[in-house]
Amino acid sequence: MDKIALTAVGLYAIVLLRAGGTFAVGALANAGARRSRFAERMSSPRFRRVEGAIQRWGAPVVAVSFLTIGFQTAANFLAGTMRMPLSRYLPALFVGGAAWALLYATVGIGALEVLAKLFAERTELGVAAVAVLLLALAGAVVYRRRRAAAPPRDHASEES
Questions:
Q1: Do 8 and 14 touch, CB atoms closer than 8 A?
Q2: CA atoms within 13 A on the CB side of 126
Q3: What distance in Å separates the CA atoms of residue 27 and residue 84, rounded to the nearest whole number?
Q4: In the predicted model, what is the mean pLDDT of residues 96-105?
Q5: DSSP assignment, residue 152?
Q6: pLDDT tens by residue, 9-46
Q7: Residue 23: CB atoms within 10 Å
Q8: Fewest CB within 10 A of the end CB: N or C in the chain?
Q9: CB 76 within 8 A of CB 97
């Protein structure tokens, strides 16, 4: 079995366990909330409508969430907390998880091979490439934290 296929199979197993586990934790959280002081709110007509919409239309969101960064855990947890039926959730998990595993196996292995070749042939360029990647990652983290910490802008005062 070639390394891309082996990596994809390994990643697929990991994503099925991780995403399925997140769904299960969401389902357990829902069950616990229904026995708590939130039970009354969860039986309101508005909550039931939202829950019904997620149960019916959430599967495509779950499948596509695997192609995003930072949204797949929330989508799987929400699917569990909103009691998406397994008959809708599992196909979305299998399709989305397969797409995720193939994407990361091909792109991930390709990137690692390029870096390995760069380090073997031109070590200084390999070190520079890793440094640039780490600086870009650090810059993105700092930007997101500053943006999240910034006070909300008042659009009403800007319009006058």
A1: no
A2: 13
A3: 9
A4: 93
A5: P
A6: 999 999 999 999 999 999 999 888 878 877 777 778 88
A7: 23
A8: C
A9: no
